[in-house]
Write a structure and sequence with these properties.
Number of domains: 1
Mean pLDDT: 93
Distance between the termini: 42 Å
CATH topology: P1 Nuclease
Number of strands: 4
CATH class: Mainly Alpha
Largest sheet: 2 strands, parallel
Number of helices: 15
CATH architecture: Orthogonal Bundle
Order of helices and strands: HHHHHHEHHHEEHHHHHEH
Radius of gyration: 20 Å
Length: about 325
């Protein structure tokens, strides 16, 4: 059964990957970094919360690889951390009733606007309908953006009075969205009067080579899919880099998701939507042309790759710090 499920996982990732953030590999590497920041007791406390997940058996236990079925609890905990980090993306492919309950497309991003010019900003003033609010509702609800979801999830997961099933589901979302919030294309969208009056959907409407669009190009920077073992090996490798380790330790001092999203928005503006992306788009906007296919240079991809690795480490250290807080005795929180 587990081998059949493993084949299914690969097929789902291959089919669904263009829509996912950091794809399978990035989220698992981030979760592996967070795992290494916790004590064994904290790791088990996190798994204990996850065990109340209403789909714990079908989406976690039954997917546990055969090689880990007889493993010690810590080895299994490592795998459950990684599975929690990708679970919100797996929900995209649930049967209709479960998908309606657990899949929330807008929770993955916030389309904070970017513009070609101040003139475009003024032209579109008052006409944008995107949800860029940073004020969270009292309870999790459909239509929230990533900022609102992270704030709601942090409060409810940290509250032991939250129903156990709700707490477990939102913990899985927290695993995932801490990663998403560090992907620049999940914190910005380009708006213009003609090409993108509704926004470029975080780069999904900007066609590129390689990959089919700018969003997918950034999603793929940490790899596409990765095994349990390889994810932990990559986490160890990244954490051994002294510069990245220092960045992670510094990042863990800032646990406000609104700061993380501002960082990502700034990176989107300065790098992701850099000159080689904006120049042909500006020309098309000005000349009534179509959205061009943009060939991303090696220099662009190299710079983006460095940013992706740093953001993965920052994200992993921050997720680890949040989990440390969550598992601390109430008086120490």
């Amino acid at each position: 059964m587990n081998r059949v499920r493993s084949v299914l996982v690969v097929c789902l990732v291959l089919w669904a990957s263009p829509a996912l953030a950091w794809w399978d590999a990035g989220h698992k590497i981030i979760a592996a970094i967070a795992f290494r920041r916790l004590t064994p007791e904290q790791q088990q406390s996190v798994v204990t919360i996850l065990q109340a997940h209403p789909r714990w058996r079908v989406d976690f236990v039954e997917w546990l690889p055969d090689t880990l079925s007889e493993a010690d609890p810590q080895a299994q905990a490592k795998w459950f951390f990684l599975q929690a980090s990708v679970w919100p993306d797996l929900a995209r492919d649930f049967e209709e009733s479960a998908k309606a309950e657990f899949h929330h497309a807008t929770w993955h991003y916030v389309n904070r606007p970017l513009y070609f010019s101040d003139r475009d900003r003024l032209s579109l003033a008052g006409r944008l309908t995107v949800n860029s609010s940073v004020t969270p509702p009292m309870e999790a609800e459909e239509g929230m953006n990533i900022a609102q979801t992270l704030l709601v999830a942090r409060r409810l997961v940290s509250d032991p009075n939250t129903p156990a099933a709700t707490r477990a589901v939102l913990l899985a979302w927290q695993f995932h969205l801490v990663g998403d919030s560090h992907q620049p294309m999940h914190a910005a969208s380009l708006f213009s009067p003609r090409l993108f009056p509704e926004g470029c959907r975080g780069g999904n409407s900007i066609r590129t080579r390689p990959r089919e669009n700018l969003h997918a190009a950034w999603d793929s920077l940490l790899g596409e899919r990765i095994s349990y073992r390889k994810a932990h090996q990559e986490a160890v490798r990244l954490m051994a880099d002294e510069e990245l380790k220092a960045a992670g330790e510094q990042a863990a001092l800032t646990l406000d998701p609104l700061v993380w999203l501002r960082e990502s928005h700034d990176l989107a503006e300065s790098v992701a939507y850099g000159p080689e992306v904006l120049a042909p788009l500006r020309a098309a906007e000005r000349t009534d042309g179509d959205v061009p296919v943009i060939a991303l240079s090696e220099d662009y991809l190299s710079a983006a790759g460095r940013i992706a690795r740093r953001r993965a480490v920052e994200s992993g250290y921050r997720l680890g710090a949040l989990l440390q807080q969550m598992t601390a005795p109430p008086a120490a929180r």
